[in-house]
Please model this.
Amino acid sequence: MKCVHISASKGYDVLIGRGLLPSLGERAAALCRGRTCCIVSDDTVAALYEPAARGSLEQAGFTVCTYIFPHGEESKSGENFLKLMSFLAANHLTRTDLLVALGGGVTGDLTGFAAACYLRGVQCIQVPTSLLAMVDSSVGGKTAIDLPEGKNLCGAFYQPALVLCDIDTLDTLPRDIFLDGCAEVIKYGVLGSRELFDKLHGDYDLLQVVAQCVDMKRAVVEDDEFDTGRRQLLNLGHTLGHAIEALSNFTLSHGKCVAIGMAMMARAAVKKGFCPRETADEIISLISQFGLPTDTDTPAQEIYQTALGDKKRQGGSLTLVVPVQIGDCLLHKIPVEDLLGWIV
Model:
């Protein structure tokens, strides 16, 4: 087992290993004063892992209730958020009690935001069951729901009490969803590790890769918890990716959209003179090697208009993450009206 400690406004451990889910109850009991717990999960993940999570928690002395919602990005909505809040109140959770986010990025975002808001803050344990959630969304305290106007526009920074990454849960992950997480892993290589990028071309130890990505995110979060500087680098591929995702009405997955966004930024970086053609070709080649898309038929003008509503926009400017070399990216602020020229 690997343990990565996050020293943020609230410190916590990210545990990465195999066979960790049965230890959830014991670890939760050591962190939580209360003994009532709500597991939050979508209908797909709940069918697979809710009984094991519930059994572990009950064995540790918790009274457990479970809130299950339909899988998919559509459930990261204000309506579902309020249903969850009412469920917590109806089950009499108190400030000393606990939420457990059991699932992928949608579950983690929704549950984390509910934990930040219910009674002005209750503890939350993240138990990510997708690769994307393990390497990215479960770590760092970003929680949110979507609005009709855009993705993640309503949220809070709220650090979990623990992140429990049981690599065994990835064994049941559909190949397509596993590849979504691979897009985020590639992102980490492009951002800060030539060694990780090269490793992905061949055989690699999944546990070691997850731990390396989490440790890279740890360094960024500890340096810039509230996303005002260096943490913005983690948005590589996301500004354009989020716009493409929204324009597809979320029929195109987050990971695929991030992959397209990274490829677009790589091509634009060459066009704008930030990086050599060889670097862009390497990035696009690795994305393609994993079976992820590198382009879209969505018109550039539509991507531009949608991206103007991105939460990272600051007045009349937007900060882009631009690759320079594999393992080296920079933050580049542009006037929003220049964004159209970066969509290539």
Notes: The longest helix spans residues 175-192. The radius of gyration is 19 Å.
